[in-house]
Amino acid sequence: QVHLVESGGGLVQPGGSLRLSCAASGFTFSNYGMSWSRQAPGKERELVASISTTGGMTKYGDSVKGRFTIARDNTKNTLYLQMNSLKPEDTAVYYCDVVGYWGQGTQVTVSS
Length: 112
Known about the structure:
By secondary structure, the chain is an all-beta fold. Helix content is 0%, strand content 51%. The protein has strands spanning 3-7, 10-12, 18-25, 34-39, 46-51, 58-60, 68-73, 78-83, 92-98, 101-102, 106-110.
């Protein structure tokens, strides 16, 4: 079955960077577009970024454009999210998503 494991979250100061990873298994990774979403306490889940099967097409939410970069390595069945210039409002649990499945999430906290 689909199994997604997010990692790389943590506590970072405003302006800092983090790189999230999502290890995927149980499906043919290279056949599916992937995405990252996030959910902050008391807020609805928000789509952060998505990427096509080959990585040739990416799309970002307005709040992260120019700061976050989504990437994938189909040889390693792994999805990435490079997050730069982090802001306190980026604080949330980040999830890796594929066709309605997601993992347990990884907490990102941006605070001084």
